[in-house]
Amino acid sequence: MATASHTVEVQVPQKEVWEFVSQMEKWATLVPGYREHQILNDKQSTWTFAGNVGVLKKEVKVQIDIISWEEPSKISFELTGLSDKFSGTGYFEDVALDANKTQMTGHLEVKAGGLAAPVLNPLFTAVLPKATSVLTNRVANKIQLVHA
User: Fold this and answer.
1) Which of 28, 72, 73, 88 is most buried (most C-beta within 10 Å)?
2) How far is it, in rounded angstroms, from Cα 142 to Cα 19?
3) What is the DSSP letter of 12?
């Protein structure tokens, strides 16, 4: 299973971080390779991403299910591949460092299944750390811009 985490400091109060990350609609477009998403209900959505795998371009459809909201510090979700056989989990977690500074961590774990697993799992291991840090940094930057 490929696993990656990235932690940043956000120069806003914890409640502002929570208000942003607890609503997928606010950060869906910040995910690397984002193409589109559809909110099915308050806990479920489908997302489409595009990326390059070597010289090939690949579109991936994913179902995201929120498995817990732990206000004001953590939102956890599960990923299920709709176009390819893979699954995973992720979360955003934040810790108040002081009244106007919050530490935020983005975390993802992804594992491929089926016949493609021997090819996809090393690929996930290679790309997940960068994708996780890019997403976490984009979310932090957007939160700071919105609350500047």
Assistant:
1) 88
2) 12
3) S
Residue 130: count of CB within 10 angstroms of its CB = 12
Q: How far apart are CA 134 and CA 116, in angstroms?
A: 26
User: Which two tokens mark 31?
Assistant: 């995910």
Bond into 72 cis (ω within 30): yes
DSSP 79-100: EEESSSSEEEEEEEEEEEEETT
DSSP labels for 29-66?
GGSTTEEEEEEEETTEEEEEEEEEETTEEEEEEEEEEE
Question: Any idea which residue has 């919105």 for tokens?
Answer: 146
How far is the C-alpha of 6 from the C-alpha of 107, rounded, in Å?
A: 7
Q: Confirm if 60 and 84 have CB atoms less than 8 A apart.
A: yes
**What integer pLDDT is reported at residue 53 of this predicted model?**
60
Residues (pLDDT < 50) of the chain are none
First to last CA, the chain: 38
